[in-house]
Please model this.
Amino acid sequence: MYKEYKPNMQPFKTPMPSQEPDVRNKNFKEVALGYTEEMAINEAKRCLGCPTKPCVAHCPVSINIPDFIHEVALGNFEKAYEIISESSSLPAVCGRVCPQENQCEGKCTRGIGIDKATGKKKEPVAIGRLERFVADYHNAHAHETNVEIKKNGHKVAIIGSGPSGLTCAGDLAKKGYDVTIFEALHLAGGVLVYGIPEFRLPKSIVQKEADGLTKLGVKVVTNMVIGKVLSIDELIDEYGFEAIFIGSGAGLPRFMGIKGENLKGVYSANEYLTRTNLMKAYLENSDTPIEKAKRVAVVGGGNVAMDAARCALRLGAEKVYIVYRRSLEELPARKEEVEHAMEEGIEFKLLNNPVEIIEDPETHLVSKLKIEKMELGEPDASGRRRPIGTNEFDYLDVDCIIISIGTSPNPLIKQTTKGLETNNHGCILTRNEFGLTSRDHVYAGGDAVTGAATVILAMGAGKQAAKAIDEELSK
Amino acid sequence: MFKIVRKKVFNPTETLLEIEAPLIAKKAHPGQFIIVRAFEDSERIPLTIGGYDREKGTVTIIFQIVGASTFKLNQLEEGDYAHDFVGPLGEPTDISGENVCVVGGGLGVAIAYPIAKAFHDAGKKVTSIAGFRNKDLVILEDEFKSASDKFIICSDDGSIGTKGVVTLPLEELLKSGEKFDKVISIGPVIMMKFVTEVCKKYNVPQCVCSMNPIMIDGTGMCGCCRLTVGGKTKFACVDGPDFNAYEVDFDEAMQRGTMYKAFEKKAYDEVKCNLFKKEVK
Model:
């Protein structure tokens, strides 16, 4: 318990100001608006500073959460930022996109028990919202300081500019390494720019992270598909890179293999989101087209599915369904995204599995999605209850279907790098917790290793690899 | 930024750009493609490589002005810079086979020519068939001819070469006993479909088509370019763009190709209209 103030015993989180559901579902501006200083201090005082720190144990990068929250409660926001920065490179991003309910907030002491007055489950400290507040405060108030970094002359190449690559590059640049990031697309940021929509993660935040790296002397080379234009071996043998970090993500979309999946109007979530976010198809004068569908079904229950559904709504759809084969309990998306999606009017067709996509014979466009009602059986290998078909079918009238059932790592680098081992899902195999691959001097991390996972895990992997690369090259 | 070192306007709808891109020029092979963005906010346009000069470090693209994005690309002049240029993407054309026929239709000739040249340079027997709508749209006639042992040109209206579509001379050759071990076709999907039907009829051992579906990233990420080949979903950007034509679902590919027709037309009209307004001022 802290001495400076009495804890705030309010049972629930300090509410987050956000755009009204009926307003925000028509624009692409950020949904959650962030705490004010007063709100942040009020919320921070809910933290009891428990000695067991269950929150830290459940943070993938072990941020010293009670300490940073304590500084927020005292109004020392910059100090709070410093504490977070010891463990995290992307707090403005992670505060917005981390699945806190399964991580830090999941085991918070304040979330235990039922509030007697309302009969509702008590809520944990809003750690994610506080992290976001601290990062945004820092970004708005920090003065530009030009720190002189002494260059050590060692060259490191980073493949991919997503969360793991940005983090690895930043940590190494701060230690004096000559770092070059190679990005396949025309813009740095990886999934943070092509995947996660503006209304959940404003692109200015990602840009700020990338700009920060440039100031540290990191070179970002876009339009470079490593494995095609240059191979890992060429980077080492001809360009003199002494270590490589592969953070190429998991970008290959999976399809279901059902009839009608290649009809016009059927998108992978990657395509739908890339058109909308990276190519800015939502802007009136965009050169990149997207179908302005009226009735949309999104297949899948992850964050990407929620993003796609909410984009469809904002692009003018009148009816948007989420079709998911298990129940609400198994839905893998971040809790806040599911709540936001429901508030915005998206209809959840739970325990339903798509079996066929039916074509309009005249237009050759999608006209219906045939779905089968499911029941939950015994838990499967993933530990979740297995959905079983009931032989009861229904039809959804739709003119657009977005498939969001997961992605696999891109095989381009594996195919062109001798001796780089992967498992049968295409994920790069690593020899230790620092991400060393089967090739010496070549490290990997993030979704390219784990398969599609979270931003914070990728960031953590980037940090670990940076440590190991530093150790190897400073010998 | 990628410098335009040469621009050649073939006719009002077809243009060649030679672009400085030494890394791509070093790695490119016939059949592969690049993605170009003319300006900062432009669409990503996939174009099959029309040629490359490893020594000069340049890559050539030839494109048809079909919509707003290609219209904007055509506004770049010699000395200007394309904002983005990525490649080489996709798999190169397999140049195995001793007696091959390369069939190009319209703009497809721009890609058929380097493929024919690759076979020809490798000492293979090359028969080329080039089809155009009319004589004003003919491109690369001399180049294509010089890369072929036998060269046939035809046009829809008969204004140049034999009158009719490319399948007519192809069928004639096959009927007269020509034993091609491979036929490669590059052009509109409908043309490739009919070339494939003719090849099937005469039991040509291998028939290959070079697909050019709608794409965004070109690296296997969006799945927009998917097509059905042998009953399986394939991505043209990473599995192709060349495929065993006997297994390709051409009807589906044709449908998918029309996805944004209305948008393209509207955008094209707008961009032309804006430009016209500028000129009037």
Notes: The interface with chain A takes residues 23-24, 27, 37, 41-44, 68-69, 72, 83-89, 216-217, 219-224, 226-228, 233, 238, 249, 252, 255-256, 258-260, 263-264, 267 of chain B (CB under 8 Å). The first helix of chain B runs from residue 22 to 27.
